[in-house]
Amino acid sequence: MQLSRLVLLCVIALVFVPVTGAHAGPLQVQGARLWAAPDSTRVVFDISGPVEHRLFTLKNPDRLVIDLPNAVIDDKLKKTLTSGGMVKSLRSGPRNKKDLRLVLDLKAPVKPRSFVLKPNEQYGHRLVIDLFKAGTASKSVPKKAVTRPKQFRDLVIAIDAGHGGEDSGARGKKGTREKDAVMAIARRLADLVRKEPGMKPVLIRDGDYYIGLRKRIEKARKHRADLFISIHADAFRDRRVQGSSVYVISRRGASSEMARWLAARENAADLVGGVSLDDKDDLLAEVLLDLAQSATLEVSNEVADNVLTEMMRIGKMHKKRVQHAGFVVLKSPDIPSLLVETAFISNPTEEKRLKSSKHQQRVARAIMNGIRRYFVANPPEGTRLAKANIRKHVIQRGDTLSRIAQRYGVSMTTLRVSNRLSDDRLLVGKVLKIPSRGS
Ligand SMILES: [Zn+2]
Predict the structure, then answer these.
(1) Cβ-count burial 220-252 (b if 16+ within 10 Å, e if not)
(2) Cystine design at 231: which of 90, 182, 260, 273 (Cβ 3.0–4.6 Å)?
(3) In DSSP terms, which residues pair with 29 in a beta bridge?
(4) CA of 5 relative to ligand 1 center, distance in Å
């Protein structure tokens, strides 16, 4: 459908295209932007048309040289590119009378990568230069350690604010950018997770820069995340469309991913609890992977259900059931993953709400409540939440103190005292400590 295609576009907003064809007059470099991420720096040049380019690095001092045939640069522009990340400064000069040479002075040796982007509604033709700290551009997936924890560990929630840097995501009529709104919600959610006993947040993106979709998954695995939650805002040409949606990976997306793991079998051992798949025949390897994937999917679905229930309480839903799609960020084989489209930024009312800090907090809290409800009831083995001697009860709609007391075989007074309740009103989503009988 048109809508789901648009949703997909919002996640994969960068379109890569090769450049062909010559250009008549000299091309102009019209703008430059720099986005600094922890391990990489992205420099983007706005060019007046499709551009060909050549780049190479030089040592002592470290530099990156970019040659653009038949091009010129505005002198004022050189000052607008502030140094940052791995870049000290930008210099330029003419070459062969009609060509342009750009030189980035670097703070350290880098591995560069470059590509061009076609115009979109926000920018024209762009040349993108990615600088990776030498040694960090490797494509290998970090392995998730499978050592048994000796101590109880915190539950790790990976929070992924969509888009970033050059990729603004969807835009509201008033100019609100998806990347900013979702970053604000992500930070608020991280604060709430941090306050939660036994939980720890990891912000996948912690600033205004872009991270590749597979890289986002890698980062979550590196931190041994128990849950990956990606936060986005929707857009649609019909500005009346509104509401939130919650997504998990689709069956088709999951099975195409299965083929990838089977192909890279030596990397797949940690996906099935450390069992090597190298010596297994295809069928057995597939069965083992399928089991791992099904378990992950089941958790994804249940957490998503809980988050959706909470989102329903704070606003309109675009889809009242958990949706399934092939989003790349949801493809972790061993980390339950969900994606929340918090609202339609294209809807004027929802754009306004997305900007309001009060509403951002409300969304973050709803997501937190959903996460808590699932993981307190189903704590992964080895986590602090799973410590057997502390029982907890997450208050559900319709619960009363007397019914909870009866269920766990404790007195109402005990419940009141150990939870410091001043009256018997119960807040849905709150966690009650259940003391052991007799204490
Ligand atoms: Zn998005």
Answers:
(1) bbebbbbbbbbbbbbbbeebeebbbbbbbbeee
(2) 182
(3) 47, 73
(4) 12
Q: Report the alpha-carbon distance of residue 331 to residue 329 in Å, rounded.
A: 6
Q: How distant, in Å, are the alpha carbons of 147, 158, 223 from that of 261?
A: 22, 22, 20
pLDDT for the residue 115: 87
Note the pLDDT of residue 13. Answer: 38
CA of 183 to the centre of ligand 1 (A): 11
Q: How far is the CA of 317 from the centre of ligand 1 (A)?
A: 17
Distance 306 CA to ligand 1 centre (A): 21
Distance 230 CA to ligand 1 centre (A): 9
Q: How open is the CA angle 37-41-43, to the nearest 5 degrees?
A: 130
Q: What per-residue confidence (pLDDT) applies to 432?
A: 87
Quote the ligand 1 centre to 92 CA distance (angstroms): 36
CA–centroid distance, residue 144 to ligand 1 (Å): 27
Q: Residue by residue, what is the 3-state secondary structure of 301-354?
A: HHHHHHHHHHHHHHCCECCCCCEEECCHHHCCCCCCEEEEEEEECCCHHHHHHH
Cα Rg for the chain, rounded, in angstroms?
Answer: 25
User: What is the CA angle 310-179-90, rounded to 5?
Assistant: 160
Which residue has tokens 């940690």? Answer: 270
pTM: 0.70
Q: How far apart are CA 12 and CA 163, in angstroms?
A: 9
Going by C-alpha positions, the residue among 166, 131, 125 that lies closest to residue 20 is 125
Alpha carbon distance 45, 313 (integer Å) = 45
The per-residue pLDDT for 384 is 86
Spacing, Cα 45 to ligand 1 middle (Å): 23
Mean pLDDT by 10 residues, the chain (439 residues): 41 40 73 88 90 88 91 77 83 87 91 87 88 66 48 93 93 95 98 94 96 92 95 93 93 76 61 62 74 85 96 93 90 91 96 96 97 89 73 86 84 81 84 66
Look at residue 288 in the predicted model and tell me its pLDDT: 73
State residue 309 phi and psi, 5-degree precision: -60, -40
pLDDT score for 60 = 86
The Cα 428–Cα 64 span in angstroms is: 57
